[in-house]
Amino acid sequence: xxxxxxIGQSMKAGLLTAGAAVITNVIIFFIFKSAGIFTDTIxxxxxxxxxxxxxVFSSIVPTLIAALVFFLFEKFSSKGYRNFSILSVVLxxxxxxxxxxxxxxxxxxxxxxxVMHLTIVFYLLxxxxxxxxxxxx
Length: 137
Prior knowledge:
Elements: H1 7-34, E1 43-44, E2 48-49, H2 52-76, H3 80-95, H4 107-136
Antiparallel strand pairs: 1-2
Helix pairs in contact: 1-2, 1-4, 2-3, 2-4, 3-4
């Protein structure tokens, strides 16, 4: 049985992921900000403090790109979800190091950003798997 997702189904899962990731990451941002973990003294790209807008943008754009990449894995691979999941896990592990490259970053600040990275991948794999299960029915 072929339960590969169409571009529309893949993008719908991506949009659900983006919505859930935005809500969760904005909550994480404000919790960490109010706890003093995300401070205005740490500058992103050496220029500006972290605000909620880059959190929203970074929760949406990569997610939609990832949904498109997933569709391509589905289209050109017999094990699209498995292969995409492996790639996602490898990339998220690599992404966990990038917050530590921010100049003068604290461990708490970097770990807060890491939690946001993990949130997106968790939701993406969850919503894609759920869409595939629904499609198999």
